[in-house]
Amino acid sequence: MAPFHPARLRPVRVTSLASVPLIELRNVSCGYGDRVILDGVNLKLERGKILALIGTSGGGKTTVLRLLGRQLRPLSGQVLFDGQDLAPLDLAGLYAVRRRMGMLFQFGALFTDLSVFENVAFPLREHTDLPEAMIRDLVLMKLNAVGLRGARDLLPSEISGGMARRVALARAIALDPDLVLYDEPFAGLDPISLGIAARLIRDLNDALGLTSVIVSHDLHETFQIADHVAMVANGRIVAQGSPDELRHSDDPLVRQFVGAEADGPVRFHQPARPVAEDFGVSA
Ligand SMILES: Nc1ncnc2c1ncn2[C@@H]1O[C@H](COP(=O)(O)OP(=O)(O)OP(=O)(O)O)[C@@H](O)[C@H]1O
Questions:
Q1: Strand 84-85 vs strand 76-81: parallel, antiparallel, or unpaired?
Q2: Which of 66, 68, 190, 269 fits as disulfide partner to 72, beta carbons 3.0 to 4.6 Å?
Q3: In the chain, how many domains are there?
Q4: Would the keyword Nucleotide-binding be found if you checked this record's keyword annotation (predicted)?
Q5: So what's the pLDDT on residue 162?
Q6: Which residue's alpha carbon is at the smallest distance from atom 7 of ligand 1?
Q7: Average pLDDT of the segment spanning 149-163
């Protein structure tokens, strides 16, 4: 059971489905239009864990997040949240599921004309009828959890990028979600802010009993906080395991990616005509 944390509203759910993974992709294929992006993907994540999705650009990591939020439906296979197939849900069912998910997308996207306080209050005002006094307490608890209670009256333009990311995180957890989806939460942060943001994601995950999925290119920080890493490439999960297992993988694609090698199965050069032909020299 997660330790008590003042920012946690709900008691930890005691459920007979405790062994059911919080999220599961079963043999999922999906794409945009005629183009298949993911083909036969299987993935599971237990409650309380952090999953990192890594892989080459355009490989389909964000597409996995879209499947989990049902912004995208699979062509075949199933996407399950807490044991429930998302595909047949009507709008009310979908909203109920989405309320259990917090999302933090690239750069946080705060409302620029709302204060830090109002940014975090926004989902509470949108999705609940809580009285103002309770909204105030909840917002301040969430801001406290990310270390920014003292910044409540500032505008996004008056805080640093790292602070803005933490406000976005407070907003993502405002409704006490079960699952938090992070798309590039560290993009554009300096190394110190990046370290703070990564630690915060892990600490909040554990203190609030969350489950998290992180899409990130910052392998060093991501490997520090993830329980499970899945590498997405060429429409498939090409490798998955603990951060250590991926670090020591023999798979050439994983080695190239994790070892940041310029050449390997993913080639540096796009296929092209011979150099001699393009430069008019004899080989
Ligand atoms: N709305 C869309 N319509 C058509 N194609 C799309 C759409 N969104 C993404 N794609 C394509 O699907 C593929 C996978 O995209 P996705 O954003 O999931 O990759 P990614 O692994 O998250 O990439 P990156 O690391 O660059 O963010 C890419 O080739 C992209 O061009």
A1: antiparallel
A2: 66
A3: 1
A4: yes
A5: 87
A6: 32
A7: 93
